[in-house]
Amino acid sequence: AFKAEFAVWDTPMSFGVNKNSSSANSSTSAAEAVDVAAILARKKAEDLPVDDGSGKLTVWVVKDFKKELVDPAQHGHFFGGDSYILLYTYTKPNSRSEEHIIYFWLGHDSTADEKGAAALLTVQLDDSMGGKPVQVRVTQGKEPAHFRQLFKGNMIVFKGGNASGFSNSNSAAVEQADTALFHIKGTTALNTVAVEVTDRADSLNSDDSFVLVTPSHVYAWQGRGANADELTVATNIATTLAGSYKGTGGREVVTLQEGSEPAEFWEALGGQADYPSSAEGEVVPRDARLFAASTATGTFRVEEVDNFDQSDLNDEDVYLLDTYTQLFVWVGSQSTQQEKEQSLAFAAHYVASADDGRDADIPIIRVTAGGGPRMFSAPLQ
């Protein structure tokens, strides 16, 4: 049952919008004990991929306010200074009809105009397909499991990117350095990603794997606490970069265990230095909360739904399902245009204003009544 997955509640937060008294009547205090096992089970279901990633994928990078097609050979290679649009098409089991997901990925260093263009171009693509696709806004480092799975452990995020599309911008594309360090992040071979970090020894940590690229070698470095999947991905990424980084090949791949590094390894990083013995920044999942958004009273109102279950979803309204690591905006087919627009705006405001320790860049995922990816629908079953 839906409500069985979300049995514990935090004290409701105020967002400066109209609410009725129901939002203050939470039946369970945040001080009560949390069922850790239930939360872990819910987190697993929440991020369950819609399929195995074997569908059709088309990728565009945003340049000068337009979509530029990315060569399939470069799928999975992203630059943190750019924004991308991905159209994924798949067929559900025992069905002949195609389903579509449009991801728009925003790099940390992508300019405001690129991010705005990505959002606009995503809407245009959605409209051209009759509004049927699910739209998923994704920021760098907060990719859902299905997004990463599309690249089968070969997702790499490089530093740099294209110049801004603004005519008065002084930005320019960043040239790749001869030496680069990549942090391998993930829990399985399918959802692991390599992210370029500052090429210094203090960027390492003992709980993870890293790949160091030099003009002559590529080192796959395994920290003492790294898991086997990370090492597998690190070796695969090292092999890829050995033959393609900066458009040149011929580098020798060397696998290293922490503590067995040659002098050349440390020289490439500017010398040995202290580094953390464990990874930082792990997000702790929290329990879900449901909010109803409506203009039925003449003003835009948001109120919390307590003790909710599937029957609380009214097709005439818009709902926000907050899982702490993701925010879903469920759009009823009979909801008004004003409700749709103001709810999406409120979703961004909600995430930015929530003073509860969450990352401000969690994905905001828009789904429509009667549809939606498995990551949304699984908790409803």
From TrEMBL:
<dbReference type="InterPro" id="IPR007123">
    <property type="entry name" value="Gelsolin-like_dom"/>
</dbReference>
<dbReference type="GO" id="GO:0051015">
    <property type="term" value="F:actin filament binding"/>
</dbReference>
<feature type="domain" description="Gelsolin-like">
    <location>
        <begin position="200"/>
        <end position="266"/>
    </location>
</feature>
<dbReference type="Pfam" id="PF00626">
    <property type="entry name" value="Gelsolin"/>
</dbReference>
<dbReference type="InterPro" id="IPR007122">
    <property type="entry name" value="Villin/Gelsolin"/>
</dbReference>
<protein>
    <recommendedName>
        <fullName>Gelsolin-like domain-containing protein</fullName>
    </recommendedName>
</protein>
<keyword id="KW-0677">Repeat</keyword>
<feature type="domain" description="Gelsolin-like">
    <location>
        <begin position="302"/>
        <end position="376"/>
    </location>
</feature>
<feature type="domain" description="Gelsolin-like">
    <location>
        <begin position="66"/>
        <end position="148"/>
    </location>
</feature>
<dbReference type="InterPro" id="IPR029006">
    <property type="entry name" value="ADF-H/Gelsolin-like_dom_sf"/>
</dbReference>
